[in-house]
Amino acid sequence: MKEKINQYISKFKVARSLKVRIFFIILLVGIVPTAILRYGILQNYEQRAVEVRISDVQTQFKILANHLITYNYLQDTSSEIINAELEQLSNLYDGRVLIIDSNFNVIKDTYGISQGKTMISEEVIKCFKGGNGVNYDPVNQYIEMTTPIVLIRQNEEGKENFEKEESVVIGVMLTSVSTDNIVANIEILSRQANLIQFVMVVIVIAIAWGLSNILVNPFEKVSAEIGKVQDGFQDEPISVSDYLETEHIVTAFNELLGRMKTLDESRQEFVSNVSHELKTPITSMKVLADSLIAQEDVPIELYKEFMTDIADEIERENKVINDLLSLVKMDKTAANLNIDTIDINAFCELILKRLRPIAKQRDIDVIFESKREVTAEIDEVKLTLAISNLVENAIKYNNDHGYVKVTLDADHQFFTIEVEDNGLGIPQESLEHIYERFYRVDKSHSREIGGTGLGLAITRNAILMHRGFIKVESEVGEGTRFLVKIPLTYIAK
């Protein structure tokens, strides 16, 4: 039901406006209570006016009932005093009075219509039994009530003894009283209430419109500030601190803006670095080729030397291109992962077996320590590239006669691979940049050993694709420790 309402509202663009919603909320909060108050006041007035009228009429007719007993009116209806009182009360209350004797005969009707007829009704019978009946009919605008005519009989000795007195109902007065004056007063009050309510509605509409504009204004400020950034007139962080909510929105936007700036700077730096990395070997090859072309009768030994240098530059260019291709593949979605259940112990042993010959050239010990047998779901190709980069870097940026230690461990959820060396180390200020593309801690040393600056970026992407993470700790001159933590079971998003 809620979804259908939202779908219906979404068709009307105005209904989705926060300003419009605030306007209608304030309007309802202002109007509904006044309408309820108006209804309550009128209903309370009508109820109270009817109660007062009933009480007043009952009092008057109780007095009249006593006069009927005094003047023995039920046996003789010619009493001018009683008839005058009946006429006066009928005119006063704009009503009708019927006096009914114990035989249910109407002995007096102020309208003269039912006089001499028999009147048997539920209200009359109840009244003869000692009860007073009152019925208010708001539709026909009258009050009908019965008043008993009670005779007090004394005991047999003829002495007054209130304990032995008995009351006998010898007749009933059936009275109909008009409530036209109450209805007229209610209509007057209703007109006045309508006028007051109209004025209140106008005031509430004005207040609702003003408040909705005031309350939404900070959000419009946020929109305007974002528009300035979008149009290029402003690139500094924006600030709208009117509400806590606007602060949260602005803070999130500023963080996004900062992230976008960082990405843009990274993109520009990446393009610049790629251009430089690809252009440098080409420039070197062109210089070598031009040197050969410019010389005549060049010795074969010089040709071989220049061609060797050109081959080295081609190899360097090939490394950059291959790493870029690997990075592009890593940037694709994890749907491209080929997940298999792999023996991680054998997996690590194979990687180290391939890299030990490189380490042996500088007398670097490569040690593998496995704390338990581990089997996990991984993409073997991509994770091989990641771990190989870590171990190869530990070898390349190490001291002669140093060591590289690889430790494998696991718990019930993750397995960890720790790569530790006692090599050159990484400065603290560089730790947060080492995963950036083409970033090099020591550019001169990196060029000597043929690094492209893409290895750790590739490693981090591969680990993130496996829903894992990588941490690094390093001290300059003491060595570096990378910790890779990956779930044993791969769960696709």
Notes on the structure:
There is one protein chain. This protein has 493 residues and is of the alpha+beta class. It has eleven helices and twelve strands. It has three domains: 23-184, PAS domain (Beta-Lactamase), CATH 3.30.450.20; 245-330, Signal transduction histidine kinase, dimerisation/phosphotransfer (DHp) domain (Helix Hairpins, Orthogonal Bundle), CATH 1.10.287; 332-487, Heat Shock Protein 90. Helices cover 55% and strands 17% of the residues. The strands form three sheets. Strands 2-1-5-4-3 form a five-stranded antiparallel β-sheet, sandwiched between helices. A five-stranded mixed β-sheet has the order 7-9-10-12-11, covered by helices on one side. Strands 6-8 form a two-stranded antiparallel ribbon. Strand 11 and strand 12 (479-487) form a beta hairpin. The longest helix has 53 residues, at 18-70. The model is unreliable at 158-162 (pLDDT under 50).
